[in-house]
Give the backbone structure.
Amino acid sequence: MAGGRRFWWGLVPAALLMVGTVLGPLLAPNPIDEPVTVPYATPSAAAPLGGDQLGRDVLSRLLAGGAELLLTAAAVALVVTALSALLGAVAVLRPLVGRLIERLADVLILLPPVLGILLIVLSWPDGGRLALCCAAVLLALPYAVRVVAASAAPIASAGFVEAAVAGGERLGRLVWWEVLPNLRAVLVTLLGLRFVAAVYIVATAAFLQVGPQPPAANWALMIRENAAGILLNPWAVIAPSLAIGLLAVGVNNTVEALAPGRGPVRLARL
Amino acid sequence: MTGAAVVEAAGLVVGPGVGPAVLEGIALRVHHGEIAAIIGPSGVGKTTLLRALIGAVPPGMSVLTGRLRVCGHDVLAASPERLRALRRERVGFVGQDPARRLNPRMRVRQLLGEMAVDAGPDGPRRLLSELSLPGTDELLRRRPGQLSGGQQRRVALARALARRPALLLLDEPSAGLDTALRAELAELLRSLARRHGVAIVMACHDRELVDRIADQVLPLGAPTMSRPVEQPLPERTERTEPGPPVLLGHGLSAWFGRHPEHPVLSDVDLRLAAGSASAVVGPSGAGKSTLGRVVVGLHASASGTLELDGVRLHPRAERRGREQRRRVQLVPQDPLGSLNPRRTVRASLTRPLVLHDRCPAEQRPGRVIELLAAVGLAEELADHYPDALSGGQRQRVAIARALGAEPDVLVCDEVTSALDPENAEAIMLLLARLRRERGLALIVISHDLRLVAAHTEQVLALQHGRALAAGPTTEVLAALDDAGGTALTDSHDPVGRAIRPAGLPPRASARKDG
């Protein structure tokens, strides 16, 4: 079962990251908010990845700083994919609603992402992480809806959907039973891509300091805080950067392993 | 015949790794210029055999043993590159459902041009004229969605011929073509074989075509998962006085998108009595399928009035009541697309029972089996996905699904086109029994005039979207015969101007405009 083995290997990086980010805070050898060495110290026995700008242990902060990023990005990706699946499928089944959704998406796409984040998060100062999530969902949704609607269009005109419409099925049933099951591959792929995009947005927000505030440990925040000392202790910047990259790539690999091998509907069998 | 055979197969066994083989001990030898026909009931593995010849058996199956040489290549041992080269250069393949194999975004000119050996600007024109389609710019500009079913089939054939292949594989080449076009197709295939030395292997249940042109016939054995339809009494329905009309259509017109000035159907009247059967005939592109779609409410750009038992029907299915929708059911034309690929046969058949509350929950499994039996399918088939079904089996499942709703009006769009004559006859007899017992009114859209003559009492002949003649079957068919039979063929009007004005978006997007 070579295919089976490939499947399981695909899950490994993401599984390691999940376990690492969830258990990370427990594994951290040092407290994340107390200095254990001099600022920007090079790696030593006490601090395997050296110290950060305040002399705190980089490894401990790295282990503690992933959970929030991972969970926020995962939540955003799930919400975006679910909403866009519903909206996209409804859009192709009800052309009038579809045109309305499309126009709204056009307007939202015009908004530059960084500006959008700042606009929403700063105008809702008490929103905290929820405000950031809302901003990320709103910014990602128009793109995702477009993709779903485009893939759903050929399915909506297939004979089985027409037979269901003529047979008396309601809209919800058409979406849930006829259209979406045939979009499984598209939706799973979309979930992976949206996760990566959400990581970018959450990391960007942290870098701009509109999301989590110091002294919280957060990979994106660590990159920003320690950028000044990159020549003294490069690990304080490289380690969180690698972690973000691995997370994005790992999740995408997993999604690829989970995605069904074939397209939404087999249009041609040769 | 001199020289090596183009196709040489011996002891071929094809099947899934476990369980019974689908094809066993197949031996086939076809030389240049020969035509071989694979015949057999639906579900017997005709398509699988055709695909095995080019090393592309369906997923989940493999060639287990045997020898197979095509154009001098050992297909079973060839590398993927060699296989691709073989398929590209030596073999033309036209599948059962050509409409879905044509890229909907490409125009006819590009579809033909990208394949043509004869790369000049006139190449596509010449190809089309070989298939008695006019090579006008108007036709070359169209996209597949703007062609009728018969035209799509011929464009797909032209595409396969564009490479001047040594071997031509055809899956049900005559399905969906009217009598005159079938004759032309036979002539064309014969001349391809005789004059150009093309070897042709076709899966076909059109006995007439097979008898006419095939040099050899390979019958395949007992079908898997199909069984003979329980034969209802083959008694003809007695001609009774037409009862009150159950469905009444007046001045039905339809168009695509926002172009009511180019109707595909104009001012057609329809009158169906309970228990009656009416046929809709006409050349491809005459608006037959559109009429069926207007009746069930799938074609929103339509005008005219439709009444079911005296109650006005909304032109759009979404706005009709559930009971109204239950009473008018459609069996769609395209057998491959009419079943949800992600649902088992059982799920597809159970749904109308639940939706329309046709029987108590505990009786549903039994009812599904009854429905399958009624269309001649075995119970084991219920847990399969449409992928595992042949074209004919899917068509029968689609019929069973429509019957599950116990409709009063059933629109059958070419429902027998993928069936062998015995099964087609059996399905028509089943429908005849339902007409007698339940007063089902039937609209039969078909190219098959023999079937129309045998099973319907009224005929509506369409041409360019207008009613050419309407009345009792025998009279109308006789009158059309007197007119030289040309009224029902495409050759008279090969462009099919009635279809759609050029430059309109293809069907999928046109529909959105509703």
